Amino acid sequence: MPELPEVEVTRRSFAQRICGAEVLSAQLGKPLRWPLGLDVDELRGGLVGEVVRRGKYLWLPLVLPADRSGGLLIHLGMSGSLAFKWSPGEPGPHDHFELNTNRGVLRLTDPRRFGAVIWGASLDDGLPARLLAGLGLEPFDAALDAAHFHAALVGKRVAIKQALLAGDIVVGAGNIYACEALFRAGIDPRLQAGKLSRPRAARLLQEVKAVLAEAIEQGGSSLRDFRDAHGSQGHFQLATQVYGREGQACRSCGSPVRRIVQAQRSTFFCGTCQRR
Asked: pTM value?
């Protein structure tokens, strides 16, 4: 599943090129998770603004004819990817949305169709607002400091790994990145979130930010089929310390990396380096 680094890498790979483009036409394929929310022909003539990211969503602002403003909220789902090319060829069976502009064609490919392209008047209105309502702070938001992070954990009875994945405190710490941040911080993923001390919470937040920044720099993680809008794969998965390394020697102490299941997700950790 594309996580925050993959979505941010995707955004950076086409945002500058599409900004200012005029929409010539748009096409829909098979239905996605939610309906578009307007007639696809109404997008014709729209001008694209600056693409931004919120959590794992991309917001593509548009000014339509007659000064009707709004935008498209895009989610890649579990297997989706965006490509932006001059000549992408005929749509295939898994291509479900296409925005044809005077600077190229933005195409969403999503084999499992859990992704979405939704029209909204703004990020604070309608379905986009409801989808974004439960998201925590962005990992690089100045408001997300150690004090805020620790205070948000107080009273939480779930395991710290699950608290990270929930996304209501900080967005972006998906499964790979939560495992890696917890390892770097030396914290057992099974520790009850509310029992994390202030110093350990500060260290964990520091590592969450560092892991996500490194993942973005390395193009995200391509475990199966993730590509950015240029078609390039990510490389962060090649440098993981624990994720996907069950039974292999910990790079720090040599103990075997362990794997457990938490909330139906695989958790990888070192039982020696990571303490409760």
From this structure: 0.91
What's the Cα-to-Cα distance from 242 to each of 160, 170, 257, rounded to whole Å?
17, 22, 6
pLDDT in tens, 99-133: 999 999 999 999 999 999 999 999 999 999 999 99
The helix or strand, by DSSP H or E, that contains position 178, with its residue range, turns out to be: helix 175-185
Catalytic residue among 2, 5, 128, 189: 2
SS3 143: coil
Q: What is the DSSP letter of 25?
A: E
- Provide the CA 232 distance to its chain's centre, in angstroms: 17
Structure token digits, residue 115: 């992704």
For the segment 172-194, the average pLDDT, to the nearest whole number, is 96
Give, as one character, the DSSP assignment of residue 151. H
Distance CA 141, CA 77 (A): 24
Single out the catalytic residue among 12, 17, 33, 265. Answer: 265
